[in-house]
């Protein structure tokens, strides 16, 4: 046979429809997976940010303001070390403190914002202008940290806050003690206002013992950089859905090609090769469909001069009790002796060689397979039995 005379395989649309009807869930799965892959490619599936920046602001508590009620000049209280030196100490010792707490804590940057300074102009009694400089509010400390997650930044900033509080406590306490020492040294030689100086010295001493250097939390800002889920364009989703639909169609075609179940008359005809196709009995076992099949059986039996016909199911799961009853309800039994056998693979030697009737294969749609049909044909033909053809029973 030449290449141009070879039979071109035909696509059975009914078989494809049967596969689609039974395995429709493949389509939405392919669409969902394809759209998900497009989303993953566009956003890299990084739901959590690659880096998070945390900026926290703490306010310095003014623990010496109460001394003004005792006549103490608050400007005379000088922190030692100064706040610039305090920041330098914290920046130098902070990394070692982080390592002592955990190896995973990130670096923290520290800054201090000074309170706002205002200048007031006023006229004195002589008509001259007097300028007064005053500061409003207290200094704020800023802590900045960058890490893969928020918890690491919070822990690192807490270490720095505690270190700043310790340095402030020491510096303020030292400043108060120095001022107290100076007042008492003056008090030893003072001849007047000794009561006021004594009161100030006692107030400073009492206050120095309660200094904590505490910082109060004010606010925070959190920024994420890199790795956040980006917005996926609708065109990308549409492309993914189109690809998923194509993949689903290819899977359906592959399943149709590899599907061995007998789902249509054409599939049964292909499975029985050159044997006669006797028709199909519908799912309701209607008299019309049964009569048409019975007539075809009678014609085939007369052609080989057979008076006995045995129905043989294709596959162990095929039940043909209703098929036998529907054919017996016609006039078939007045022409032929009709009986039924189990599956060919379960027949004994006596059943195969001692039977004088002809066989009719019965395929049940969506249950019987082409392999079972060809196997039954091979068993019957090797044992010399006559096969009149095959019929199909709908669901």
Please describe the biggest sheet, giving its number of strands, its sense, and whether it closes into a barrel: 5 strands, parallel
Beta-strand level of the residues, as a percent range?
A: 15-25%
Helix content: 40-55%
Q: CA-to-CA gap between the ends?
A: 40 Å
Task: Write down the oligomeric state.
Answer: single chain
SSE pattern, N- to C-terminal: HHEHEEEEHHEHHEHEHEHEHE
Strand neighbour order, sheet with most strands: 7-11-10-8-9
- How would the global form be characterised? rod-shaped
Secondary structural class? alpha/beta
The strand count comes to: 11
Identify low-pLDDT runs. 1-9
Overall pLDDT score: 81
Count of helical stretches: 11
Radius of gyration: 49 Å
Structure characterization notes:
By secondary structure, the chain is of the alpha/beta class. The chain contains eleven helices and eleven strands. The strands form three sheets. The protein has a five-stranded parallel sheet, sandwiched between helices. α3 crosses α4 (150-187). The chain is rod-shaped, with a radius of gyration of 49 Å. Mean pLDDT is 81; it is low at 1-9.
């Amino acid at each position: 046979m030449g290449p141009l005379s070879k039979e071109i395989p035909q696509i059975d649309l009914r078989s494809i429809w049967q596969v689609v009807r039974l395995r429709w869930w493949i389509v939405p799965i392919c669409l969902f997976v394809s759209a998900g892959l497009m989303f993953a490619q566009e956003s890299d599936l990084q739901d959590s940010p690659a880096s998070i920046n945390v900026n926290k602001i703490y306010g310095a508590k003014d623990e010496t303001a109460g001394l003004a009620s005792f006549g103490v000049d608050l400007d005379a209280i000088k922190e030692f070390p100064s706040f610039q030196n305090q920041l330098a100490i914290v920046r130098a010792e902070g990394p070692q403190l982080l390592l002592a707490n955990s190896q995973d804590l990130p670096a923290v940057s520290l800054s201090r914002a000074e309170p706002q300074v205002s200048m007031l102009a006023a006229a004195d009694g002589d008509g001259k202008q007097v300028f007064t400089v005053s500061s409003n509010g207290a200094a704020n400390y800023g802590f900045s940290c960058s890490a893969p997650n928020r918890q690491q930044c919070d822990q690192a900033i807490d270490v720095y806050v505690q270190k700043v509080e310790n340095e402030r406590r020491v510096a303020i306490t030292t400043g108060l003690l120095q001022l107290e020492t100076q007042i008492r040294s003056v008090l030893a030689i003072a001849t007047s206002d000794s009561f006021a100086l004594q009161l100030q010295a006692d107030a400073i001493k009492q206050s120095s013992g309660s200094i904590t250097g505490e910082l109060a939390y004010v606010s925070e800002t959190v920024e994420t950089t890199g790795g956040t889920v980006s917005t996926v364009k609708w065109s990308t989703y549409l492309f993914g859905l189109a690809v998923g639909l194509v993949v689903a169609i290819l899977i359906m075609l592959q399943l149709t090609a590899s599907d061995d179940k007998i789902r249509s008359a054409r599939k049964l005809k292909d499975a029985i090769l050159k044997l006669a196709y006797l028709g199909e009995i519908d799912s309701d076992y209607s008299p019309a469909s049964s009569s048409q099949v019975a007539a075809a059986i009678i014609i085939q039996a007369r052609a080989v001069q057979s008076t006995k016909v045995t129905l043989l199911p294709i596959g162990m799961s095929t039940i043909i009790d209703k098929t036998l009853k529907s054919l017996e309800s016609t006039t078939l039994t007045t022409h032929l002796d009709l009986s039924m056998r189990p599956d060919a693979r379960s027949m004994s030697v006596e059943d195969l060689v001692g039977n004088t009737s002809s066989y009719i294969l019965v395929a049940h749609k969506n249950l019987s397979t082409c392999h079972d049909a060809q196997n039954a044909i091979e068993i019957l033909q090797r044992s010399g039995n006559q096969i009149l053809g095959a019929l199909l029973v709908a669901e």
